[in-house]
């Protein structure tokens, strides 16, 4: 078994599940700490080598769990939706504040790298609130001093089996899947992708 250690934030989400499962199969890793808001459902993860160490925490006091960030690689898959958050301030707390604190803790504990999920079209000057928050977060993390090898993945719409129902997103994916064959050149980046592809990209960014 390998010697690398990792911490995964947001391990119960679509990409988070795919990521943890890929890390469990990756011989380079021997321990995967998952900080979660609710207990993990064991049948969502294939962990024959017993690498996963889950811990249910209070995300409003993330700084109290700083010691768990003493790992090689930090993966942050935290994210919500406007509908689930209920307000712009609640959305920003999850998608900006929590992720930003994770980056600060990774820096404080001298993690070798930090990778998180942003969004295609992220832009701090966007008129779209969602994309503006994502862009502001990219600016905040990528300019953070003494945080080595920080990188964001910018996926378009994600395909996969979600635990929550998102009818608008589902329709968007169906439309994009239908026109994907003609989405070439600059448009190719907007093709919907599977969560497993995003998870694999995150791992490749860590293992530079």
UniProtKB/TrEMBL annotation:
| Pfam families named among the record's database cross-references | NAD_binding_10 (PF13460)
In the UniProt record, the signal sequence range is: none
- What residue stretches are annotated with the NAD(P)-binding domain? 10-129
Can you tell me which residues the record assigns to a coiled coil? none
Q: Which domain of life is it from?
A: Bacteria
Indicate what this protein is called per its UniProt record. Nucleoside-diphosphate-sugar epimerase
- Taxonomic lineage of this organism? Bacteria, Pseudomonadati, Pseudomonadota, Gammaproteobacteria, Alteromonadales
